[in-house]
Amino acid sequence: MLVDLSFFNISRHAEKPIVLKLVKALFAIADALLLLISPLAIIGFIVGAIAFSAMYGEHQSFVRNLTAHGIVTEAQLSSYEFGEPYIAVEFRDEDGVTRYGTIATEYYSEDTLLKLTRRERIRYLPEVYQSSYVLEDHFNTVKNYLGHLTVSISIMAISWIIVVIKPEFLYVGYDKSIALALPLSTPPEAE
Amino acid sequence: MPIGILIAFLLGIAVEIALLFERSNMEPPAFAPRIAHQIDQRIVIIVPCVLAALVAYLAVGIVGELNTEVSLDDEIIGAIFVGIGLMALFYGFISVDLRPSVSEQNVAVVHLIVLISLILNGIPAVDRSVSLALFIVPSLILLYLGISQRTLRPTFKALVYFWYLILLMIVAAQNDLGNVFNALDLTLFEGFTAGMIFIFLLLHGLFFLRFFLIVSSLIIPRNRPFVAPLMTHLYSDRQLPPARFLLLVVIAAGLLLLMIGLNIFPEQTAINLAVLFGAQVILK
What we know:
The complex is a heterodimer of chains A (191) and B (284).
Chain A: H1 12-69, E1 71-79, E2 86-92, E3 98-104, H2 110-114, E4 119-124, E5 132-135, H3 139-143, H4 150-165, H5 176-180
Parallel strand pairs in A: 3-5
Antiparallel strand pairs in A: 1-2, 1-4, 2-3, 4-5
Helix pairs in contact in A: 1-4
Chain B: H1 3-23, H2 34-38, H3 41-63, H4 75-94, H5 104-120, H6 128-133, H7 136-147, H8 154-175, H9 188-217, H10 227-234, H11 242-261, H12 267-281
């Protein structure tokens, strides 16, 4: 059934500009919002990059130390429930001292975690204050693990997209002519 | 780090700031005494710093504490480095004042030095052949830009400058800057150059993050005109004639290889000195 719209004075020809205006208005609002959050995105990118390098460096140093100085022994997995972030471990070190610590589960696949037995071979560092260990049979997985970087990479990626669309605030502080050209401006000069 | 070396390290930081201050043509603040406006800015900063370092070194020597180990956990040392960090944050992220402008010839010399260092040492955790392969195309482009006397468009200047920052980041990775404070057995001169390269790379490293965003935003053509005024601060169009440039490149590479070959300085110190020379002295 066709609806007669003539009563509302809306014809097919009049409809298009209204929709266009609406779309334009929505774009203008999105544009203004992006401009508003772009300084936060710049800070977000920098914080993400610093977090990325810190976490990557820390993991690499952990793996390097384990490779160079790690000791392999058999340990008892004293408590663990599937889904928990850590496995509690206890073992006797080279000096016969009982040590307690944890294995982070984030490195390993579900399949690996489901197949764990009460006793597993682990790799640990001799320093007593080091209480993070890894499963020896899956040490290569730990070496290549990048999952801990997901959050920082996501923050950097989202921030990057916003800044690429609205880069004006990147130039603040460098040159008065650039600062004055902000934010609702045409670019300072053509190349 | 022993206190004696720390004094040399801090002096290196101060001298490098003075050189960057002068190279960036930064004016002394309005409230500075009149004499500060009349004489060479380097002298205004370097002479008092050298005197202060000498007095501190002698004072610590008289007390017999030159070899006492200090760390960032010590309150005074921690406070000094927090101050340096805050200054680096400001001049690294926000201001261009402590960043010398470079030309493609500076970049070409730094590129050559880093290439030599890659052949000798590589980059930690990166395959050497891969890193060298990545250098082939930039090497050819920079050689061409260094010899040709043409002025680049701002967008290309930004790309060349970005490559320069990448080169400096490679030097930072080779230096293991995060552990510079725990470096063992440094001589006074090595401590001094470590301070210089530390602040130079820290300032450029922080700026690298911001400039990465700037360069990557250029993929949208609408953003490209924004970069032109910035590049006037960062990039110099001054060029040496091709023959002099090539001679300079040969001298820079020769001096570096000589320093390493004769074992005048440790290899990384020689590379650091050559990078500072390539970035700041050439074309001055």
